Amino acid sequence: MAPALTQDDWELLRSTAVEAMGRAYAPYSNFPVGVAGLADDGRLLSGCNVENASYAVGLCAECGLVSDPGAHRRWSPGRRLVRRLPRGDAHAVRPLPADPLGARRRAVPHPDTGGRALARRDPAAGLRGGRPDQGSTMTEQHDVVDIIRTKRDRGVLADDQIDWVIDAYTRGVVADEQMSALAMAILINGMTRPEIARWTAAMIASGERMDFSGPARPTSDKHSTGGVGDKITLPLAPLVAVFGIAVPQLSGRGLGHTGGTPDKLESIPGWRADLSNAQMLAQLDDVGAVICAAGAGLAPADKKLYALRDVTGTVEAIPLIASSIMSKKIAEGTGALVLDVKVGSGAFMKTREDATELARTMVDLGTDAGVNTVALITDMSVPLGLTAGNALEVRESVEVLAGGGPQDVVDLTVALADEMTRAAGKTVGPDELRAALADGRAMDVWRRMISAQGGDPDAPLPTAAETQTVVADAAGHLEHLDAMAVGMAARRPGAGRARKEDPVRAGAGVELHARPGDKVTKGQPLMTLHTDTPERFARARESLVGGWRIAPQAPARGPVVLDRITAREA
Ligand code: URA
Q1: Cβ 317 under 6 angstroms from ligand 1
Q2: For a Cys staple, 227 with which of 168, 308, 342, 535, CB 3.0–4.6 Å?
Q3: 3-class state of residue 435 by DSSP
Q4: How far apart are alpha carbons 182 and 313 in whole angstroms?
Q5: What's the CA gap between 86 and 384, in Å, rounded?
Q6: Residue 342 bears catalytic tag
Q7: Helix, strand, coil tally for the chain in percent (to 5)
Q8: Does the pLDDT of residue 532 top 90, yes or no?
């Protein structure tokens, strides 16, 4: 007997199916399909349809589901799919046959098409955005090639062009190669402020919006543009919740050299990142803080577009970063938002000028959408704190919550908490915030927050099987320690991912024993590399070549917070 599912389980399946639908490639039928399933070991699986110009060899969503990365492991003898939900329509819920592919073999018309068989479309029509003169079965409002040309030639896109291109890309009518051409044209030629606002609104409209007006407390959230050793969310969310503010932290997984908050917290035994909207709201009401994986149904257009940008060299486009971040934050429904825009070698933005432009664009977008938004520009030329890696960063965050921890981590946590409390309309101040870290109030909320998501706050954290020490090759002062070099030295032994479907190793990473400015002696340990796969040590060491410098004099140390960007005067 399959176990009975709760309303929350069904909601989670529904939002996962909607998210999967956003990944569908359906230019010929125009029927994107997403499916979500629950295996009997508790794992969530999902899939979408992927059509082919040779229509018969296209893959249905169920095929995608059973080939979900790692599913081969999940389908090992004895594993069973107990429930699945097609495309997020509650009325379409039905148990999956024991052999999930049976559904495909029988080729039952999908209930979400109203029982209609899927129409064949001319492949060329799909690539042209469904122009009627090319034989499509559905009339599309625009020609994507015209839109690409407009941006390529430095033109300004009309509102209805933007609405259509985002919607058509989410539906699979605009192909990946066309969207990459458009993204590259945007990277090179930029967008006007109204274009960015409309692009963001269209991405929000591609999914669901959350509503936090229920909890009696004001809401305040923080978003960091990502860096090395950036574990600030972990102590920050419980600290702000101490003061009666609800903190809904929907976080993304790490990619490249930057870490993701859910990846870090998953090193705590039992902790789970996937919550339904109802679970999230209940936890906000009860504990006041929740950190979970960004909801599956929030801005699905962004998920698809972000994955494409990641493999087409278009991540760095400021209009696309701003709209990507802000579409999720506005859809999440927070009342106040503090942005931590990082600048330096370990950040997406390498110069103050670019970081300021990104911060200004996001503050304008948030303000225009009615979210009380402020941005801090913070230093990411050196790693934050003394650890980079999943369990290692959780350990350091717990030290901060216990009233200790590295000074820069404490200072940035307090600076961001000060902004979050003020943006939510509360007068707390840095002294009281530091006191709440020192006297255990923030730790109490942390323990409740971790337990509410199935984690054991007292369980020992995983450690890596092997370590290697990197020592100083001269005496003097550590003059520079490059954030990107340390980020890569943490990622390569397994703390991060090369591709988004890769697993991360909980114990892997880098532990620093010296910070820029510290006096060192020749042969003194500078850092320890941690890994379960010692064959990766050599690659990690390679990334450190030229990544640190020892000089006779101590360098001047600048502040972590470099600037503050607020809403423009009306
Ligand atoms: N984080 C996001 O969510 N989107 C981007 O484009 C970059 C960083």
Answers
A1: no
A2: 342
A3: helix
A4: 12
A5: 43
A6: no
A7: 40, 15, 40
A8: yes
